[in-house]
Design goal:
The chain is an alpha+beta fold and 195 residues long. 32% of the residues lie in helices and 31% in strands. The protein contains 6 helices and 10 strands. The strands form 3 sheets. Strands 1, 4, 5, 6 and 9 form a 5-stranded mixed β-sheet that branches. A hairpin with a 2-residue loop joins strand 7 and strand 8. The longest helix has 16 residues. 32% of the residues are buried.
C-alpha cells in the first residue's frame, strides 16, 4: 500500500487527528511537491520512542525550539517515512537498534499538521510553514549509547512519560500532541502483544 492508502485507512484517535487527516490527504493528492521542504506545507515524520516497559520516552533538547522534544525530520523527497523516522532517530540520538511497533495501517501511530514559525537555521532564515506529520512508534533499549547532534540538539535523554509533558516549553505540542501520544500507548502496547 502507498502512504496515501495507509493514511486513508488510518482511524483517528481524536478530533485533532480527524481534522488533520484530510489536510494531509489533500496535499498528497494535489501537490506533487509535498515531499520537498520547498513546499509551504510539506511531509515530515516523527518517532515516539519508548522503552520495553512503556514507562519512558526518549527526548532531545531541540536547539531551534529551545525545548525538550520528540525526534523527527523532513521527508526531503523520500516517500518511505518509516525509514526516514528511523534514520532521524539514529542521526539525532545515536540509537540504531530501535524497532517500529505495529500500530495502524503502514505502522502509523498518529497524524498531525504542525505549524513551524519562521526561524534561522544554519545562518539562513526559514519562512513559517506547515509540517504534514506522520508519527511512528518505536521501542529501543535505554542501555544503548546516546549522543547529541550538535547542529540540531544539545541533549538526549530518557525520561518518564509524564516528564515529557512537563519538560516541553511548547504549550500546544505539550497539551495536544505529547499527551495524545501517551494516551494512545495502552492500546498500542496491547496491539503489539507486549502486555
Amino acid at each position: 500500500m502507498s502512504l496515501y492508502d495507509d493514511i486513508l485507512a488510518f482511524e483517528p484517535f481524536n478530533e485533532q487527528e480527524a481534522a488533520d487527516k484530510p489536510v494531509i490527504l489533500r496535499a498528497l493528492r494535489e501537490d506533487p511537491a509535498c515531499f520537498e521542504r520547498a513546499a509551504q506545507a510539506h511531509m515530515a515524520c516523527s518517532i515516539w520512542v519508548v522503552d520495553p516497559t512503556f514507562t519512558q520516552t526518549l527526548l532531545v533538547y531541540h536547539n531551534i525550539y529551545d525545548s525538550w522534544s520528540w525526534i523527527g525530520g523532513h521527508a526531503d523527497g523520500e516517500r518511505d517515512l518509516a525509514r526516514v523516522a528511523l534514520r532521524e532517530l539514529e542521526e539525532e540520538t545515536g540509537v540504531a537498534g530501535a524497532r517500529l511497533l505495529p500500530c495502524g495501517p503502514g505502522g502509523i501511530y498518529s497524524l498531525e499538521v504542525l505549524t513551524v514559525d519562521g526561524h534561522v537555521k544554519r545562518g539562513a532564515y526559514v519562512s513559517s510553514h506547515l509540517h504534514l506529520n506522520v508519527t511512528y512508534l518505536a521501542m529501543a533499549d535505554p542501555a544503548e549509547p546516546l549522543r547529541v547532534k550538535p547542529d540540531e540538539n544539545s541533549g538526549v535523554r530518557w525520561v518518564p512519560l509524564r516528564d515529557a509533558i512537563a519538560l516541553s516549553t511548547e504549550p500546544w505540542i505539550r497539551d495536544r500532541i505529547y499527551r495524545k501520544l501517551i494516551d494512545k500507548l495502552p492500546a498500542a502496547r496491547a496491539a503489539s502483544g507486549l502486555l
